Amino acid sequence: MKFTRIALCVLGILIPAGPTFCQTAEANKRIVIGASAVLDGRGGVLHDTRIVVEGSRILRADAKAGPVDYDLRGLTVLPGWIDAHAHVTWIFGKDGKNAGMAGSSQEDAYQAASNAWLTLMAGFTTIQSLGALNDIPLRDAVAKGTLPGPRILTAVEPIIGRGEATGTPEELRAFVRKQKQAGADVIKIFASQSIRQGGGMTLSQEQLNAACDEAKKQGLRALVHAYKDAVRAATLAGCSEIEHGTLATDDDLKLMAERGTYLDPQCGLVIENYMANRDRYVGTTGYTAEGFAAMEKILPMNHELVQRAVKTPGLKIVFGTDAVAGAHGRNVEEFVDRVRDCGVEPMAAMVSANSLGAEALGMGSQIGAIAPGMQADMIALDGDPLKDITAVRRVVFVMKGGLVYKNVSRGTIPVYAGVAP
């Protein structure tokens, strides 16, 4: 590991190693960032200013502060992005085929650590990884500073709906408590089949009510994988967020807006990734040729959902990619899909992965905005995403918690941040 850190420092990649690392930053070091254009994460834009960071937090924006440690003029500076739905430990196995997220070998752990690194290099400083026991050691290693990666929230084991076989309401409450004891940050509930299998509802209203209510009692949010009828059922159950939401009706979307339920739809990346890696998925658990044929029909349905969702007054739409093996480090493609294919305004797309995403995670006072007292999570793009959404592919600077992990010259990233095309 020592050799690896030295090699990364020589390559100009900054990686923490416990309390000391090649950047030699001090716990309370003062850093000044010069910027000509800053998206504050809340829909505002600052011009020709300097951002003062002290330790892990933003102190203030002060145009007269100096000296400047990082000159990011000519770039677009904004808060580090938040991906509300990823699967950071999902990998391809030794045979190159989909191995899911249950890996336990040393090689599997290295791949998961690589996924975390690629995601951070792509500009995502916080992710919500929804449903794997091996998320926990990765989450904790990143939190301790022994591995570089985005801040990780995890659901540990999800509730997988199987009708009555899932359990009684009381048994589901006990399962939620078990996840809390295991260290879950959030509860993940599958209330629908995979959309590849039709998306039918797999939990009763009573079961959903119990699971979502118990999560709330335990101080946790409940995120529900839901399609069609399950969208309304999960909203009525008081869940925090709907994942996917394909085939929800306009009335369902209005109900979500009225209840303050967040929607985390996927506009393109996850299905595009499956299609690009078809041979690596077909034949593995849950993936059939018939399922892939169904996905080709689902993609335009996802576009149509997001198009309707953005027209629903008051509906809170967050940014989540459902990144699985093959998509890690390419999470930004979901931004491009949303703006290009679904009519999402570029600023709304950015806010969905900044302050709104932070609010959905219950972390609105800590991350998602460039403002005094917030965590110093900042990135810089070579380009202006408000004018050209593909600028999100060119992340040239990454700071998380006041530590700089990436700082490269503009023009050096032609396509993806951290991942070869």
Walk me through what this model shows.
The chain has helices at residues 2-10, 106-121, 135-144, 169-182, 205-217, 229-236, 250-259, 269-276, 278-281, 289-309, 333-342, 346-352, 355-360, and strands at 16-17, 20-21, 30-39, 45-54, 57-61, 70-71, 76-79, 81-86, 91-92, 98-100, 124-129, 151-154, 159-160, 186-190, 221-226, 241-244, 262-264, 378-381, 395-400, 403-407. With 421 residues, the protein is α/β, with parallel strands linked by helices. The strands form 6 sheets. The chain has a 5-stranded parallel sheet with strand order 13-14-15-16-17. It has a 4-stranded mixed sheet with strand order 5-4-3-6, with no helix packed on it. Strands 7-18-19-20 form a 4-stranded antiparallel sheet, with no helix packed on it. The chain is globular and about 65 Å long. The model is unreliable at 1-25 and 417-421 (pLDDT under 50).
